[in-house]
Amino acid sequence: METKEVILTAEGLRKLEEELDHLKSVRRREIAERIKEAREFGDITENAEYENVKNEQAFIEGRILTLERLVRNAVVLDEMQVSCETVTVGCRVRLQDLDGGETLEYAIVGSAEADPRANRISNESPVARALLGKREGAEVEVRVPLGLVRYRILKVLPLGKTADGPPAHD
After folding, report:
1. Which end of the chain, N or C, is less surrounded by CB atoms within 10 Å?
2. Which domains are seen in the chain, by residue range?
3. What pLDDT digit, counting tens, does each position of 94-131 carry?
4. Sign, Cα dihedral of 84, 88, 94, 95
5. DSSP class of residue 7?
6. Sign of the CA dihedral 143, 146, 152, 158?
7. CB within 8 A of 123, min separation 6: which ones?
């Protein structure tokens, strides 16, 4: 099976490694203790607490496996080397919605770091795919679940800056 590269910023890799460490060093111990306590309640075949904690253990072990795969396959962006002459992973993009007039700003990141609520969109998303490789001033059309949207690229900047200039705080 081919392993897929996981594009991450240095900060994104640090966060994944911290979560992995926490799950392995803290959560595993907590779960083991809760399993021990649940076993003390008696017959585990009819013990709802035991069943719940075993399900939680399975979820945590699955998350650990996922994080280990992400970290193992990580390709860390050197943000100092990212050229933002065109839209690429590692850039922030300020857009104008040509139909509604609204101004939007997105950070283009790898899928493991995507967080639409924080305006961090995956390079695999329809909007990012339409923007990749385009320059300031370009217009793009994107088919999204609600229909067709049209954007003009107003500014392309490194992740560490907003279109207004000061460093961004994610």
Report:
1. N
2. 6-76 (1.10.287.180), 91-158 (3.10.50.30)
3. 999 999 889 999 999 999 999 999 999 999 999 999 99
4. positive
5. E
6. negative
7. 7, 89, 108, 109, 110, 111, 129, 132
In the chain, the amino acid numbered 16 is L
The DSSP-derived string for 57-90 is HHHHHHHHHHHHHHHHTEEE--TTT---SS--TT
Q: Are 63 and 23 in contact (CB under 8 A)?
A: yes
Place of tokens 């900047």: 157
CA angle 15, 115, 21 (to 5 degrees): 20
The predicted pLDDT at position 164 comes to 52
